[in-house]
Each structure stands twice: as structure tokens, then as C-alpha cells.
Design goal:
The structure is a single chain. Helices cover 32% and strands 29% of the residues. By secondary structure, the protein is of the alpha+beta class. An 8-stranded antiparallel sheet has the order 5-4-6-1-2-3-7-8, with no helix packed on it. Strand 4 and strand 5 form a beta hairpin.
Length: 133
């Protein structure tokens, strides 16, 4: 009987270790998804303003204060409390744009504006920094 008791205790320890390992892995992966959720929350910023004009080909809304917001597939535009598209917007319309990309016109192209200096560098460009002598 002593052997079966030891075998049972050993099996219970193994099961307990397996459960702990599963929860530890779940915690690691949950931590990563929490970071993704934090990024999503940051990206889901809202921009409110009055439409000055629309660049339909570039999917950009230019607000009367000069800000430019590009609509992406994740962007939600509300005009008068109802969902709207870039094409449906008219000058003078009050809008709330959620998850749009702030952009600026540079060299005839819209480039993403960000707090990160690297985000404003076009793909394939070389970023250099001049050091003071």
C-alpha cells in the first residue's frame, strides 16, 4: 500500500506542477496581450473638429484648424452623431474621428505625424543626426 500512496502523491505533485505551469504561461501571454491593448488604447485617440475640406483620393480630412487626419480601415468617423465616410463629409461639418492617423503634407505626400521621430521618416530613407562640434 505504501507504494501506491507514493505513486498517488507523485502523480498529484506532477498534476499540480502542470497546473502551475499552465497558469504561468497564461500569465505571460496575458501580459503581452495587455501591452497590445494598451497600444490599441493609445492608437484609439479621438480628434474633434470642423471639416475644412476633404482629400478623397488620399482619404484625408483637413480640419479648419489645419490638422489633417487620414482615415484607415480602423478609423471611425462620426458626423452629427452618425457614422460617416470621408466621401460623405462636407465643409463645415463637425466631426469626431477615432483611430485616424495624424498626417502632414510634405513634398506633395501625406506623411504620418507622431511623437516618435522615427515615425516621420519615410520607408527606405536614411535618418541622420548632425552632431555639434
Amino acid at each position: 500500500m505504501g507504494d501506491s500512496t507514493q505513486w498517488g502523491e507523485s502523480r498529484m505533485r506532477r498534476n499540480a506542477c502542470t497546473v502551475v505551469l499552465v497558469f504561468a504561461l497564461f500569465g505571460v501571454f496575458s501580459g503581452n496581450s495587455g501591452k497590445a491593448n494598451a497600444q490599441t488604447a493609445v492608437q484609439a485617440q479621438e480628434t474633434t473638429g470642423v471639416v475644412a475640406r476633404v482629400d478623397q483620393r488620399a482619404n484625408v480630412v483637413i480640419l479648419d484648424d489645419g490638422r489633417m487626419i487620414r482615415a484607415t480601415p480602423a478609423t471611425v468617423i462620426m458626423a452629427g452623431g452618425s457614422p460617416a465616410t470621408v466621401a460623405s463629409l462636407k465643409p463645415g461639418t463637425m466631426v469626431v474621428i477615432r483611430s485616424g492617423e495624424p498626417v502632414a503634407l510634405s513634398g506633395g505626400q501625406y506623411v504620418v505625424v507622431s511623437d516618435s521621430p522615427a515615425a516621420s521618416v519615410p520607408v527606405g530613407a536614411i535618418r541622420t543626426r548632425i552632431l555639434a562640434a
